[in-house]
Amino acid sequence: xxxxxxxxxxxxxxxxxxxxxxxxxxxxxxxxxxxxxxxxxxxxxxxxxxxxxxxxxxxxxxxxxxxxxxxxxxxxxxxxxxxxxxxxxxxxxxxxxxxxxxxxxxxxxxxxxxxxxxxxxxxxxxxxxxxxxxxxxxxxxxxxxxxxxxxxxxxxxxxxxxxxxxxxxxxxxxxxxxxxxxxxxxxxxxxxxxxxxxxxxxxxxxxxxxxxxxxxxxxxxxxxxxxxxxxxxxxxxxxxxxxxxxxxxxxxxxxxxxxxxxxxxxxxxxxxxxxxxxxxxxxxxxxxxxxxxxxxxxxxxxxxxxxxxxxxxxxxxxxxxxxxxxxxxxxxxxxxxxxxxxxxxxxxxxxxxxxxxxxxxxxxxxxxxxxxxxx
Length: 375
What we know:
The chain is α+β, with helices and mostly antiparallel strands.
């Protein structure tokens, strides 16, 4: 696989002060199995120097294109008034029962991917199809498919909007990641028209970690734009109120903060160290931390950089929660008591019928677990 073009890394550096998102880095002395306490997550003093950002928040103003989207119901032709980056599809029925034609191209069979198995509301098919900036597409479905919906998404050419991005690098136990603001998350998408949060946050102790792939393009020239497309697709098309994963990793090894977890804790957690419930493994989401590798990893594996970041992130999170990456455990859903025997760190397919995280990535999980346990 050729190396993807590397988007510029945000430079959010000002006076060196630890933000609340970097606090977990001070918890390096927490031993495996040690109890987590609120003091581990306590916020430090904000940067009030005013250098490279707001005097009150320690942020820098950056601009991101606003995501544009246009929905269509049913099969047939659809157009958009903007270049389409991705088409999000959702349907009820057979996972392989739909097809899409982009502009005047050939028909492509669409198979429900990772998000299909993540749904727990009876929907069997969802997919995010790279559209290459066309302005028209057509959808068809087999006789056993109903309730087809599609969403044309543009995450690159919309009107620029301002985001307040942390001036200092954000880290998890020394592992740098891009905050939601740093990849351009539009927080208004988490809310309904009446101002209420679409999916209110809920938190439970971490029991397991699940690895996914996003079923999106490989050699991605703009992974942050793809993350914004996944956010739109999950939050709006799938009506999950937010992105379904806790963390995402691109081919250059950059880690992205996923689902919103509040303003007082570390990414994916509340201030007491509990994990926010996301939407990535339907029926088994609470207490299950989801990490998604950007791309399609069926016939090829992750890049070396992505694999290193995945291993390091798993090591950090399992150590922090006192979990053994290689252990066989019984997961118990804290909401309904449903149990399942799994490995602490597993693949999506360990939970339900899906090819996620791709055959090649799944075959590497033993190696990743062993490496994470040794770090």
